[in-house]
Amino acid sequence: MIPHIRKQPLPVGITFIVVLAATLHQSLTDEATATTAIPPTSAAPATPASPGNPERGNYNVTNGNGTACLMARMGLQLNVTFLSTDKKTVQELVNLHPNQTKFAGSCDADTATLILMEDKTNLTFSFLLNTTSKKYHLSSLALSASWPDMAAPLSASNSGLDYLRGTLGRSYMCREEQTLSVDQNFSLNTYQLQVQPFGVSSDQFGEAEECELDEDDMLIPIIVGAALSGLVLIVLMAYLIGRKRSHAGYQTI
Ligand SMILES: *[C@@H]1O[C@H](CO)[C@@H](O)[C@H](O)[C@H]1NC(C)=O
Ligand SMILES: *[C@@H]1O[C@H](CO)[C@@H](O)[C@H](O)[C@H]1NC(C)=O
Ligand SMILES: *[C@@H]1O[C@H](CO)[C@@H](O)[C@H](O)[C@H]1NC(C)=O
Ligand SMILES: *[C@@H]1O[C@H](CO)[C@@H](O)[C@H](O)[C@H]1NC(C)=O
Ligand SMILES: *[C@@H]1O[C@H](CO)[C@@H](O)[C@H](O)[C@H]1NC(C)=O
Ligand SMILES: *[C@@H]1O[C@H](CO)[C@@H](O)[C@H](O)[C@H]1NC(C)=O
Ligand SMILES: *[C@@H]1O[C@H](CO)[C@@H](O)[C@H](O)[C@H]1NC(C)=O
Fold it and tell me: Where is it found, in Gene Ontology cellular component terms (predicted)?
């Protein structure tokens, strides 16, 4: 007459862990999406209405023979502070609309330029390639805008930037929202970005190098996975030890 009560804890324990894992994962991913979805609110100088995430556009610069030499795919949001016609300092978030954006650019051996033009907005990206180290980066951003509510046309630029660093022949990718500060009055928020300013072959992006923000994002599932495997091990060990104890108990009786 061997009592089988001891066998119970394992299936129950595993069911518990699976349910726990499912809910834990669900709540973690919910939390992650919830935190990224909340638009950052700002107090100064006037809280702008959020236009929502910008649509993603495709912008390819081609060289003389029609093959792409610079490729970019991204959603763009301008964060601009300016003096309005009624003499107030306002901060505005403005999305670029891909279907209303014209683009142009140029490609040279160690510089590449992308110019985006929407109605009353021009945005210029300049990339530099270091031919020795075979690394490129976004070195300059320039905005000129003459929006109806501006007291005077705005121009903001910075040619000492070091963003979107990648390797020749590869693309730079950042799925997460990224903020590229240009100056006191202008920063650019990028969404779902992939660019390759040099070494594009056959109109295709090269292998992607992901930004740190994306890598951090991938850490969460890894940590959860590791923690859960640890938990499973502990429960399994507890079960095995428990079973050994109970066997020993029967032998002494
Ligand atoms: C197009 O021109 C570039 C240089 O401007 C050259 O490297 C490339 O091989 C040319 N591609 C074709 C298909 O002719
Ligand atoms: C816009 O820029 C201001 C500072 O210039 C900053 O406080 C605010 O958080 C930015 N907003 C977004 C949505 O990037
Ligand atoms: C930012 O804009 C203000 C006016 O709104 C101007 O006085 C200031 O010089 C600008 N700063 C930069 C760095 O352009
Ligand atoms: C651009 O796309 C938006 C929505 O994606 C649409 O509402 C708008 O009419 C389009 N504009 C043009 C000029 O095609
Ligand atoms: C290019 O990279 C090399 C090696 O990293 C560095 O020594 C050199 O100063 C860089 N050149 C420029 C123009 O930045
Ligand atoms: C944008 O660039 C075009 C072509 O260079 C120019 O005609 C236009 O005035 C510019 N718009 C703004 C707002 O600077
Ligand atoms: C740019 O190139 C990509 C990949 O070849 C293509 O999917 C996209 O339609 C192109 N966009 C434009 C505007 O030509």
Answer: late endosome membrane; lysosomal membrane; plasma membrane
